[in-house]
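Bug #77: duplicate submission created two jobs. Keeping one. Sequence:
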Amino acid sequence: MSGTLVGVGVGPGDPDLVTVKAANLLAKADVVFVPVADTGETGRAEQTALFYAEAWRVERVVFALHDREHSERREQAWDAAAAQVARWFAEHPGGTAAFATIGDPCVYSTFTYLAATVRELVGELSVELVPGITAMQDLAARSGTPLVEGRESLALFPMTAGPERFREALDHFDAVVAYKFGRMLPETLTVLRETGRLDDAVYGAGLGLLSEDIRPACELDPAEQGPYLSTLIVPPKRAGRGGSL
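Kept job's structure:
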């Protein structure tokens, strides 16, 4: 009897931004797996999942979340996590397991790697996805920043790809959203300044949490790094209402 593994997007951190479908699944699944770092602290996905699932149904899966490069240690963590989930399905044939992931399970999520490996180990397995609200949507709403209008294009860019590719994205797209740039905050601000896009850019970190920090990017200290899970919106240069239609 095959089981069901569901990647559930739980948003950027605010439990109120979990969809009704996601909340219902977290409340009913036989088990809710949550990714945690090997340092043991409670992550955003776990904090959010615990609003909808009893603690006894929440099971931690350790990932090398603090490793920013693809390494042997990361591969080993993915294999161990998949083996843990596969064992659960072996012990609970036909069961439904949810995997809570911040944001959306199709956008830079650890669920992608987990599901592929679990499917190899389990064989007959149904994999489903429940979309979630992304950090760029949350920051746009909280800061009152329209992402795109009319014919404007939008790029979602991971700063781990480097500042020169970020510069290229600014040249080729009207609006650019940058993720994962905390360690590269000084370089990111330099590119924004050199391309004339700094004044309109909006920065956000800890969205929906007590540590929430939302402000114009021009107010950031160019000599300091920021949190890894930082979000930057660089909106289009607009000529007035309806100018992009």
